[in-house]
Design goal:
By secondary structure, this protein is mainly alpha-helical. It folds into two domains: 95 residues, Orthogonal Bundle (DNA polymerase, domain 1), CATH 1.10.150; 178 residues, hpI Integrase, Chain A, CATH 1.10.443. Helix content is 57%, strand content 3%. Strands 1-2-3 form a three-stranded antiparallel β-sheet. Helix 5 runs antiparallel to helix 6. The N and C termini lie far apart (61 Å).
């Protein structure tokens, strides 16, 4: 089965142009599924070291899904792992003609979780609480927050930016590392541009057109984990109660645009969502916000 898994993920990367992250996740999920089948065989007294994909049926996959749910796996994780198995067996249908045992299986419904949103005043505090600090690290960290909130970029897209992706004259950013290898162009506000220029002037290593925008103090590209730690540290420094992640700033970007009259299609384009349904969840956040304002302000709410 391992050989077939490797052939599948190879085809996924070449033919479907799936991102490296997707390819790695699918392979990991399929190896995890194989390990479950080996363990199940051992527990039934039929220990073996190989799995024949032709012997896998729908009941085996259901058992795996049930096992994950009982172990407390998040529904989103179960859904993604089932998607990997379905894609694997669809690939086998085209290459071997074997019918997919996963065709009739349904993914568990996701729990709808509305994103946490910070108000504009808190975001301003997050950006400006150390405005008198002009050291490189402080200027870089402010540029990170400004850019995430100004553009709605995913944190992976932010750390993937090169200076050539920034059009200062048009105030636009070309995002080259989004999901599905799809480039997009998004506006960037003047405060974020100014913050990036201030950071560029004090970068510890001379910047280059093809070089990274966000670096550590040694001049190498920052990791997504480092950005998460920077945001967490600034929350503490600004005295803001309630956590927000870099991705949470993306939610703030979308919700504040919607609250101030932007249309969903434009927000979808800026966020790089393939489906408008993904963007529509921000309407629920806005409605909840309106309800809270109404309850707190209307005398007969």
């Amino acid at each position: 089965m391992i050989a077939e898994i490797d052939a599948f993920v190879g085809a996924l990367a070449k033919v479907s142009r799936a991102s490296r992250h997707t390819v790695d996740n699918y392979r990991r999920d399929l190896v995890f599924f194989r390990s479950f089948l080996l363990d199940r065989s051992a527990q039934s007294g039929r220990a073996r070291d190989k799995i024949d994909p032709n012997e896998i049926d729908a009941d085996a996959i259901r058992s795996w899904l049930d096992h994950m749910m009982k172990k407390g796996a998040q529904r989103a994780s179960v859904q993604r792992r089932l998607a990997a198995v379905k894609a694997f067996f669809r690939y086998r249908e085209t290459t071997t003609g074997a019918a997919s045992p996963a065709r009739s299986l349904r993914s568990p419904k996701l729990e709808r979780k509305l994103p946490s949103i910070m108000e504009g005043d808190d975001i301003r505090r997050l950006i400006e609480f150390d405005s008198e600090d002009h050291r490189p690290q402080a200027l870089r960290d402010r540029a990170i927050i400004e850019t995430l909130y100004s553009t709605g970029l995913r944190v992976s897209e932010l750390v993937g930016l090169d200076w050539r992706d920034l059009d200062e004259e048009l105030a636009m950013v070309t995002v080259r590392s989004g999901k599905g290898n799809k480039d997009r162009v998004v506006p960037i506000g003047e405060p974020a541009l100014d913050a990036l220029k201030a950071w560029r002037r004090v970068m510890p290593v001379a910047w280059e057109t093809d070089g990274p925008v966000i670096t550590n103090l040694r001049g190498t590209r920052l990791t997504t984990r480092s950005v998460e730690m920077i945001v967490a540290r600034r929350l503490v420094g600004a005295g803001i109660v309630g956590g927000i992640t870099p991705h949470g700033l993306r939610h703030c970007f979308a919700t504040h645009l919607l609250d101030n009259g932007a249309d969903l299609r434009s927000i979808q384009e800026m966020l790089g969502h393939a489906s408008l349904a993904t963007t529509q969840r921000y309407t629920h956040v806005s409605v909840n916000h309106l309800r809270e304002v109404y309850r707190s302000a209307h005398p007969r709410a």
